[in-house]
């Protein structure tokens, strides 16, 4: 167990984060420098991640884009463009921007960190592992070890991942609970995907102890509770999130919980979540395709839409998880529609679980540099 006294209280940490954002926003209104605008964007992304607030992410992107437009530092602006593209799953654009930033003189170590994230996101795990291990060896901190652990978890090396997650927490020499909170969240999600719900619950409990306002942590803990048949706990966890987050994922969990109770309001809440997902998909189709696909094949009850989104997700990142999502969407659509062997989804079903040629290596321009 992590000693909660090791860190500043979660409430104080979030208050300090918001105070820093308010100060930088004031400076921006008075004519902020490029560096201060970039700092503001980063803090907005952090707060958006912790509070499940898409509006914070939108604001962060706007501030960063505005700063880029005013800057003459080509290398830095290219690097920031790469980060923005990667965050919103525009992976080809992110790759191109990274190589341009490197050519313009941006530090290679920072470039390598972003490139490793892109390799991981698009299923080039072995190449990503080489870079993640080197970065962790060079600077064994919570961020590099946490990133390595998340990769090991995706590679199904769960024992190694757990050891590395623990090492990341041990290496944390800060007093803010925010980095540790994010690592615990990723660790808990990894345990869910590994099928160990008891382990996931214990990790999310630790996260709640140091950062109780972590919205995605509570949302995923509610999912664990549902999977374990603890419907009352799931409702207790998810209900407050509807007031604090604008992410439809939590309304979807709420709808699932209502359905478990046999509450007729489940369909209405699912429709509200569907409308919100479609609005997000219209703005950021790549970023929300996977979550929306999972929603529409479940409580969203639009199996063909789920297949469309799972296909779109598989196209931008050919990973074991994206292939499983597509295969599940196809099976669900076939079961619902009664499509038989040889039907319109048959050729897709065959290929859903097979990696494409692009998954075998890094095929962006300048890959041999």
From TrEMBL:
It comes from the Bacteria. Gene3D superfamilies: Tetratricopeptide repeat domain. Residues 337-369 are annotated as: Disordered. InterPro entries: TPR-like_helical_dom_sf. This is Tetratricopeptide (TPR) repeat protein.
């Amino acid at each position: 167990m992590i000693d909660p006294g090791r860190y500043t209280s979660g409430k104080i940490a979030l208050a300090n984060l918001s105070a820093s954002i308010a100060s930088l926003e004031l400076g921006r209104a008075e004519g902020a420098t490029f560096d201060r605008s970039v700092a503001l964007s980063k803090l907005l992304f952090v707060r958006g991640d912790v509070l499940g607030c898409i509006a914070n992410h939108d604001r962060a992107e706007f501030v960063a884009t505005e700063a880029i437009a005013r800057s003459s530092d080509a290398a830095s602006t290219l690097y920031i463009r790469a980060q923005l593209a990667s965050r919103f799953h525009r992976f080809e654009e992110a790759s191109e921007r990274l190589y341009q930033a490197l050519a313009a003189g941006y530090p290679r170590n920072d470039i390598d960190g972003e490139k490793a994230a892109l390799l991981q996101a698009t299923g080039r795990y072995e190449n990503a592992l080489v870079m993640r291990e080197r970065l962790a060896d060079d600077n064994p901190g919570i961020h590099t070890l946490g990133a390595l652990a998340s990769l090991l978890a995706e590679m199904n090396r769960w024992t190694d991942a757990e050891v590395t997650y623990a090492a990341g927490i041990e290496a944390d020499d800060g007093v803010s609970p925010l980095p540790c909170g994010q690592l615990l969240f990723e660790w808990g999600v990894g345990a869910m995907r590994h099928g160990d719900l008891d382990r996931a619950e214990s990790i999310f409990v630790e996260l709640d102890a140091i950062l109780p306002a972590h919205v995605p942590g509570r949302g995923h803990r509610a999912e664990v509770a549902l999977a374990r048949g603890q419907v009352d706990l799931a409702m207790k966890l998810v209900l407050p999130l509807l007031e604090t987050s604008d992410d439809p994922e939590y309304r979807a969990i709420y709808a699932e919980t209502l359905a478990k109770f046999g509450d007729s309001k489940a369909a209405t809440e699912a429709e509200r979540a569907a409308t919100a997902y479609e609005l997000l998909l219209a703005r950021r189709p790549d970023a929300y395709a996977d979550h929306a696909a999972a929603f529409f094949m479940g409580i969203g009850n639009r199996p063909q839409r789920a297949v469309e989104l799972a296909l779109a997700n598989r196209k931008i990142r050919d990973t074991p998880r994206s292939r499983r999502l597509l295969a599940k969407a196809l099976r669900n659509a076939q079961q619902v529609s009664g499509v038989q062997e040889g039907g319109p989804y048959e050729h897709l079903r065959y290929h859903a679980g097979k990696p494409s040629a692009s998954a075998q290596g890094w095929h962006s321009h300048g890959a041999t540099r």
